[in-house]
Design a protein that fits this description.
Helix content: under 10%
CATH topology: Neuraminidase
Shape: globular
Structural class: mainly beta
Strand content: over 45%
Distance between the termini: 43 Å
Number of strands: 31
CATH architecture: 6 Propeller
Radius of gyration: 20 Å
CATH class: Mainly Beta
Largest sheet: 5 strands, antiparallel
């Protein structure tokens, strides 16, 4: 049974946060359900933002066939869904999620995962593009060319400065294949590729040659260029969040966002998320301390070169699966799954740059299992848009909601 949104409770519990000189900035905002365009047996939601608005993508399942679909949010609600591609040989996973995004020239780009061999974790990143708003799509292709039947996934796509597509992904060409038991034959890497506006590949190179095997990546473009975040893996099995910047045609030496010191012998399947405005960056991530899952947020004012002290997001225990959006006033809204009273909740909280935390809001109740996937948040036109997966009469379905921001949080600086 669907657990309703708590908009009325949110309004009752509203707490005012001032930012700068604007006393009218309020948090939390009212959250209202928006009818989802996703059909039955849907999941793996992803949100992306362009000048045209918020784009939602998801997968629908029918038997062995998976279909990647998308819709865009307008003043009247979500547009009629369109289909990117489908197949019965896809790798569909609760954490390794496909995407659809719009480039600056209006081209739509999509990625999904397709099996390349009999092993469970033998699959490739497939890319396609559409120049007619998704009516037709180009024949799919891959950004990697190693030819190994190993894992290639957890891709993050972004607009390259100027023109073209950039992306990073986890690449298992050195692992020798196999599962995620924490002891692969070789190391997982993060790799980077680019395509120009004619869809000719212009680069493929490593970012980091030893990383966690199956935590999602994140990538944004700052005023100083692309920035990527991921979960690192040291020789001592410390798996903290690292970042690297793309400068002068190469990636900088990776550096930790914060020295969590989380030592774990296997992948936690819990990656970071990034948001950027100019040289301002916010990063959210999950770690475990004293056997308690915790979600954190940190700010950077120098395009990811350095980060301030972490601010804890959860109030008692988190399952992670974070997301984050920078607001116009420099604060950020982060989301996570809170685990309290034996229940899981999709929550959001505003944090100012000086570390003040707004009251948490519960967007929805959800299953604490992997089936609930990664909840999402996006910002456009002064509205926060949420997407998540919940159980609907025994099957899974993607749901959406929106919340209007007010005051300084809404206005551009």
């Amino acid at each position: 049974m669907r657990i309703p949104l708590l908009g009325a409770i949110v309004l009752t519990a509203a707490m005012t946060l001032t930012s700068g000189t604007d006393a009218q900035s309020t948090w939390p905002p009212p959250v209202a359900a928006v009818p989802s365009p996703a059909g039955a047996d849907s999941g793996q939601p992803q949100l992306s933002v362009s000048d045209r608005g918020v784009l939602l993508s998801w997968i629908e399942r029918k038997g062995d066939t998976a279909t990647l679909r998308f819709a865009e949010r307008t003043a009247a609600g979500w547009t009629t869904p369109r289909t990117v591609a489908s197949g019965d040989d896809w790798f569909v996973n609760w954490a390794d999620v496909p995407s659809v995004m719009r480039l600056a020239d209006g081209t739509l780009v999509a990625h999904w995962l397709q099996k390349s061999g009999p092993d469970t974790y033998a699959y490739d990143v497939r890319l396609s593009y559409s120049k007619d708003d998704g009516r037709t799509w180009a024949r799919s292709f891959t950004p990697h060319h190693d030819g190994t039947q190993t894992e290639h996934g957890f891709a993050s796509l972004f607009q390259m400065p100027g023109a073209g597509l950039g992306l990073v992904w986890l690449d298992g060409r050195a692992t020798g294949g196999g599962g995620h038991d924490g002891h692969p034959k070789g190391a997982m890497s993060v790799r980077f590729g680019t395509f120009d506006s004619a869809w000719t590949q212009t680069a493929e190179m490593p970012v980091d040659l030893r990383v966690c095997e199956c935590c999602p990546t994140a990538a944004v473009v700052t005023a100083d260029g692309p920035l990527v975040a991921y979960r690192n893996r040291s020789d001592e099995e410390v798996r903290d969040i690292y970042v690297s910047r793309f400068e002068n045609g190469t990636w900088t030496t990776p550096a930790a966002v914060h020295d969590d010191g989380w030592q774990i012998p296997a992948c936690p399947v819990n990656g970071p998320m990034l948001s950027a405005r100019g040289r301002d960056v916010a990063v959210a991530w999950f770690t475990v301390k004293d056997d308690v899952g915790q979600a954190y947020l940190a700010f950077s004012r120098d395009a990811g070169r350095t980060f301030g002290a972490p601010v804890r997001l959860d109030d008692g225990g988190s399952l992670g699966r974070v997301d984050v959006e920078l607001l116009a006033d420099g604060s950020a809204v982060a989301t996570w799954i809170e685990f309290a009273d034996q229940r899981a909740q999709f929550r959001a909280r505003r944090v100012t740059r000086d570390g003040r935390r707004g009251a948490p809001i519960t967007v929805a109740g959800m299953a604490g299992s992997r089936a609930s996937g990664y909840p999402r948040v996006a910002l456009h036109g002064g509205d926060l848009v949420f997407a998540w997966t919940e159980s609907d009469n025994g099957s899974l379905r993607v749901r959406t909601a929106a919340a209007p921001l007010t005051g300084e949080t809404r206005r551009e600086r």
